[in-house]
Structure formats: structure tokens, C-alpha cells
Design a protein that fits this description.
132 residues, 30% helix, DUF6924, DUF6924 domain-containing protein
Length: 132
Amino acid sequence: MKTEPAPLVLTDRNQLDRWDDLVRAAEAPNSDGLEAALDPVDDDDYDEATPADLATAFPDAAVIFAADAEALADDDFPILCIDPEGLVEPFRVLAADIWMVENSLASGDLTLEDLAEEVGPDGILVDPDRED
């Protein structure tokens, strides 16, 4: 079981001013105190990186989170979840719910395949128990 913090990679340097807000939102604990173990990565080398590029760069990660243009443009920060093995199509998770993906994978409770099955028609995974 992989227990290293999951990389959260900035891939759109055109919205650099939104990066700190996204990281704060992703690292914030939920109402039960659960939080994601993340490794924020702000490196010019990953500007405009594709999911395949990130999978190559982080092959040992259980999941890679990408702060791309779409994630940074929305106030809910729908972050892209990437399977480094390429077996699961990328999907999005709101920053407030990123803990659910990271914790489920770290504990072995769920796989990326399991989580992908819960993605809504809009392509976003949302914690069903979260109160807005």
C-alpha cells in the first residue's frame, strides 16, 4: 500500500495567482477533521503537462492530482485525478473532497476504479456526505 503524500501538481502557470487558494482548499480538513496528505508541486517543468506527462514524472504515486486550467478557473477547484498506471480515465474531484480520494487509496479501502464508478455525469466526484 502506497502511503507517500500524493503529488498535487500545478500545470497551468497562467493562473498562478489561484494556486495558493487551491492548495489551501485541498489541504483543509473536512468537518470530521479528515484531510489529504498532499505534496504541492509548483515547478515550471510541469506547465501544460498532460496526464501522460505526469504519470511518467510520478510513476510510484497512488494517484496524481493536477491543478490545471479548469481546476483553477472554478471557485470549487475541480482538481484532475490521474491514475499513474493509466488504467482509469482521469476524473475530477472538488478540492473540498480531495481527502476522500487520497484517504481511500492510502488506507486501501477503495481503489481508483471504485472511486471512478462514483463520478457524476459532470465528471466530478463529490463526497455524498458533505454538507454545503
